[in-house]
Inverse folding.
């Protein structure tokens, strides 16, 4: 972060992050009112997505989920800023990991891992997994997350610094295969997080799953890469325990994706994610237009690509 604008941006964020979370949550309460009641930021999109995903629920319940979502969304913003000034001990208390032995066993066996996770709050705290893995192994290990660079360079640099707070590396989506191949040639075991609940990019192959009452075009590149490299796959199931406290439960998807039937791991992941969202609907990011492109289940047999 050598550019003056980057230093100014991080300095401003750190000035906010020095405040205790209990104070930051007061600002979050105000932001919630602004986003939901005043600006109505993507409120129609969020409410329509919730209603279509849970047709069995009443309109009143849809609105309640939507309001809770915006509260969580506001908390997410200030919790992410807090990464600029938070101790390892506080993060260990606030983001816990369950069944971390599953990941550690793969690392000990010298097997790299893809970690499927989603836009469940607070996903920006997930890189703190580096505080929980078994450091006793003699192997070289790198923790990474895949990202799409933001258009604003100063904001992109800021987010990279926040996401690297606990020592993980951010790998660009367009070069992630090359980066992971480099690590493998260097005899480095990797644990790489893929946000796999977004809609596919333009030009990606269309694969459709039944997800939250929708035929949904999903990202398949995560499985394709993991299969090519013979990696294990784990689902990071994020749960919000209380305000400012989260848990990630590691659930096995595959010991070796290359040995699975095609798209089997993708289907397992989205079935698990749907269960997570149904358990706490307000904890998932509803403002994205995930169902913008109309797809049908029979598209899987036509080798189509997203336009």
């Amino acid at each position: 972060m050598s550019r003056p604008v980057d230093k100014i941006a991080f300095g401003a964020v750190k000035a906010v992050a020095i405040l205790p979370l209990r104070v930051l949550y007061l600002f979050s309460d105000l932001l919630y009112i602004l986003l939901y009641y005043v600006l109505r930021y993507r409120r129609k999109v969020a409410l329509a997505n919730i209603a279509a995903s849970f047709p069995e629920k009443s309109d009143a319940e849809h609105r309640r989920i939507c309001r809770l979502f915006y509260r969580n969304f506001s908390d997410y913003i200030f919790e992410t800023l807090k990464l600029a000034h938070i101790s390892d001990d506080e993060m260990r208390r606030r983001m816990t990991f369950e069944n971390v032995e599953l990941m550690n066993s793969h690392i000990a066996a010298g097997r790299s891992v893809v970690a499927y996770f989603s836009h469940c709050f607070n996903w920006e705290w997930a890189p703190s997994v580096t505080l929980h893995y078994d450091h006793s192994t003699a192997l070289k290990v790198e923790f990474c997350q895949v990202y799409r660079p933001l258009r604003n360079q100063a904001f992109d640099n800021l987010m990279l610094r926040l996401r690297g707070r606990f020592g993980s590396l951010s790998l660009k989506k367009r070069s992630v295969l090359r980066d992971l191949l480099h690590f493998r040639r260097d005899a480095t075991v990797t644990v790489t997080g893929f946000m796999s609940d977004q809609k596919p990019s333009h030009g990606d192959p269309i694969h459709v799953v039944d997800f939250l009452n929708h035929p949904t075009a999903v990202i398949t590149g995560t499985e394709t890469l993991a299969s090519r490299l013979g990696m294990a796959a784990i689902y990071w199931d994020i749960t919000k325990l209380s305000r400012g406290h989260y848990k990630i439960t590691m659930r096995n998807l595959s010991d070796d994706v290359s040995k699975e039937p095609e798209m089997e791991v993708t289907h397992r992941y989205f079935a698990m994610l749907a269960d997570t969202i149904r358990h706490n609907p307000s904890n998932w990011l509803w403002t994205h237009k995930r169902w913008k492109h109309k797809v049908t289940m029979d598209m899987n047999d036509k080798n189509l690509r997203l336009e």
About this structure: The first strand starts at residue 95 and ends at 98. The chain has a mean pLDDT of 94.
